[in-house]
Amino acid sequence: MMTTSNSTRLLPLYMYSQISQLHHFKTMDSSVISPTLLLSFLISASLLISLSDSLVCTSQKFKANKVFSNCTDLPYLKSFLHFTYNSTNSSLSIGFISPPAKPEGWVAWAINPTGTGMIGSQALIAFQSNGSLIVNTYNVSMFPQQSKLSFDVWDLSTESDGKNFAIFATVKVPEGATTVNQVWQVGPSVSKGVPDKHEMGEANKKSVGVLKLIAGGGAAAPAPAPTAVPAPAHGPSSDKKSGVCRIGKSNLLSVLGLLVSLFWFI
């Protein structure tokens, strides 16, 4: 269900390899070889920089062949959101991807219509039940309680690639809305059909944001830091940033230029 580019990991090794070639050929015939080799190096490096700056979510495909207009690499819990906003009927279709904290755990995505944190959020929570992946709706107060949501939801479904859970749904949003407060979470276990408490690591506490629905709405702006709650409607992990590492193109090109100059005049 998900493929991740290795360009970020390969870039330093590639840079070293190419610069070494420049230094080697300089000693042979710099007047002929150096311009061509230097140009080749810079073009190749630029392509790798472009790849490393791309979103991971754009390479993800669903088994159900679902397609969405936008996607965003959420900043915590190795999670991703694909979505399409339909202004004609004020609906938001989503495809949420995340690995549970443990294989027997759960993943959740929610909208909070009254605040920016977990308390009050209307959640979709997926977990394994009797060997099948299911998704239920929950109203999150202090603990997740299975119930109808405060807004309409339809086309609920799930899928898994063995490592990640995906939740699909279409929800009704207020007419004319341009943003929604989203919350996502992961948990380690489920007891008697009820999601257990998630961890309280930094990533778990920060897994909230404001989702822009229109024009360039792929970005998930951070919401104000929520207050910690004793039990949630979602789950754990504590990686600080998901997706591909982003390095400023201008800064990296400056570094490349400096490295080329240093090797050239050694």
Q: Could you list some keywords that capture this structure?
A:
single chain; 266 residues; alpha+beta; seven-stranded antiparallel β-sheet; five-stranded antiparallel β-sheet; 3 helices; 14 strands; 25% helix; disordered C terminus
Question: What fraction of residues sit in β-strands?
Answer: 25-35%
Residue ranges: pLDDT <50 for 5 or more in a row? 2-16, 43-53, 217-221, 223-256, 258-265
N- and C-termini, Cα separation: 48 Å
Radius of gyration: 23 Å
Give a short account of the largest sheet: 7 strands, antiparallel
Mean pLDDT: 74
Dominant shape: globular
SS summary, helix count? 3
Order of strands, main sheet, comes to 7-6-5-4-10-13-14
Give the % helix. 10-25%
Number of strands: 14
Topology pattern, helix = H, strand = E:
HEEEEEEEEEEEEHEEH
What structural class results from the helix and strand content? alpha+beta
